[in-house]
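JOB MANIFEST
job_type = single_chain_structure
chain_count = 1
residues = 77
[input]
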Amino acid sequence: MSGQMLRKYAVLEPSAAELLNQTMDALAVSMRAYDRILKLSRTIADLNGSEKIKASHVAEAIQYRNMDKINISFSGD
């Protein structure tokens, strides 16, 4: 999904946008990671039958991203 399509179809509720922006600041997330979190949030929202992305969808996507980082650090052992 291109960036333009992502902005069109990944509509965030205000609380979800705030959570994602806070995460960007707190974890120094790149724009590439931002887009990945947004795409995953859209998928989670779709699976829950939600038209808009809610804060809970963003939080779940962020948790998966953090789990992925942990798995990468352990796989090098």
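[summary]
The chain has a mean pLDDT of 86.
Residues 55-75 form the longest helix (21 residues).
exit_status = 0
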